[in-house]
Amino acid sequence: MINSLSGRLLILTTIFVMLAEIMIFVPSIARFREDYMLDRLERAQIASLTLLADDMIDPELEAELLSNAEVFNIVLRRDEVRQLVLSSPMPHAIATTIDLRDNSAMTLIGDAMRRLLNPNNEVIRVIGAPVREAGLLIEVTMDTAPMRTAMIDYGLRILILSAVISVFTALLLFVSLRIFLVKPIKRVVGHMQRYAAAPEDARRIIIPSAGVTELREAEEALKSLQTELTSALKQKERLAQLGSAVSKISHDLRNILTSAQLFTDRIEMSEDPVVVRLAPKLVGSITRAVHLCESTLAFGKAEEPGPTLTLMRLAEVVDDVLYAEQLAAGDFDVSFTSTVPSALQIRADPEQMHRVLGNLVRNARQSITASGRAGAIVVDASQTPEAWCISLSDTGPGLPKKAQDYLFSAFQGSVRKGGSGLGLAISAELVRGHGGDIKLLRTGDGGTEFLITLPRGDGTI
User: At residue 211, does pLDDT exceed 80?
Assistant: First the structure.
């Protein structure tokens, strides 16, 4: 209870209300003390009227009047004449004089607190103005003990009332917080616990319903977070399933490609000029496919193996990629151009760079052919003291908004119907394995351009 939010708010509310009542208590006690003394002055004035009506009164009646007024003597000043109207013996000498005609609030509060804290009975002189202008002033002498007792009794009543008010207010606040804050928070916590038990289940995503603005914002943020997490988990599960399927397919495909590789060995012995020209490229393609299957390089099955870095002529890999894509383009009007310097050598894994460039060129070719318009693809490369830079540009229709938002995300950035969006995701992973970076420089109606940067040093660009 104490450690709960509502319990602590209940305690704090009670404390704060009590503090507020204490701040009210001090001036209230001062006001009560002032009213007490004014009441005694008024009683004394009424008692003096008896003497003014009859100069000679019985001593017993005089004592009774003073007793009812709770004073020892009464002095009335009328017409500039100071007159002792009623008097009786005083038990002590006058300790202090209090003039109620012109006292500031702070003075009254200070005097009241000193009187409340002083247990000694003293005789004080109180001076005030008569009511209804019945003279210039009236003064009385009186004991402080009855006044202090009355002040304590009044103070206790205030404190008891304050305690009752604070507890009642705290209980109302407690119930209100339970209804409007604690219960909605517990409901959100319950949603979080149910979602944590099965985060893949989209039915467990919270539906915002809180009436409190701050809680509604928290529920909206939680819904967004749960939606993204569920989507990510589903994607991860799909990748795992894909990896399992690819590992099975690669086993059988490797055997098929191994047989095809044996057939190409026989083809290489042909004397046909066309066969002689195409056979090495066919052998290279089959060799790469066999190596890919043997390594089980399936995105989502496992991480790509680290690259085997070696100095390679980039132009040879680019020419090989462009030639294969030119054959795939067939009769469609797509031009493939390489402006890579023939002598440029980079430190990279030839097989992995072939896959990177192959994915990028293939995407560009498919984008141009899908648009139904002629186009061009250009691969260029340069070097700086820090890095090698490879750019690939095309004159296609550009990437749509969805593809840009999920550019390097598997299964989300595909442009073609039925595509998986794996090409750019695989390329980005392979480039990162080289310590490099791949980014989209521009895209739109004028075409698309990607830039690959590979470090020349120790892995820092």
Answer: no
Closest CA relative to residue 142, chosen from 244, 65, 73: 73
Determine the residue type at 89: P
pLDDT in tens, 259-315: 565 556 666 666 677 666 666 767 667 677 666 665 554 444 445 567 889 999 999
Residue 416 C-alpha from the chain's centroid? 39
Compute the distance between CA of residue 377 and CA of residue 282 in angstroms, rounded to an integer: 23
Tokens representing 381? 């490369």
Question: Can you name the residues that pair with 381 across neighbouring β-strands?
Answer: 390
Residue with tokens 């009254």: 108
Residue type, 138: I
Rounded-to-integer distance, Cα 431 and Cα 450, Å: 13
| Angle made by CA atoms 35, 41, 42, in degrees to the nearest 5 | 90
What are phi and psi for residue 57, nearest 5 degrees? -125, 160
- Contacting residues for 155 by C-beta, under 8 A, at least 6 apart: 25, 29, 116
Maximum Cα interatomic distance, the chain, rounded to a whole number of Å? 161
Q: Rounded mean pLDDT of 86-113? A: 83
β-pair partners for 84: 75
Domains of the chain, each with CATH number or no CATH: 5-169 (no CATH), 305-455 (3.30.565.10)
- Could you tell me how many residues make up the chain? 461
Taking the C-alpha atoms of residue 394 and residue 400, their distance in angstroms, rounded to an integer, is: 15
What average pLDDT does the segment 380-398 reach?
A: 94
Orientation of helix 5-53 relative to helix 105-117, angle to 10°: 100
Burial 317-351 (b: 16+ CB within 10 A, else e): bbbbbbebbeeebeeeebebebebeeebebebbbb
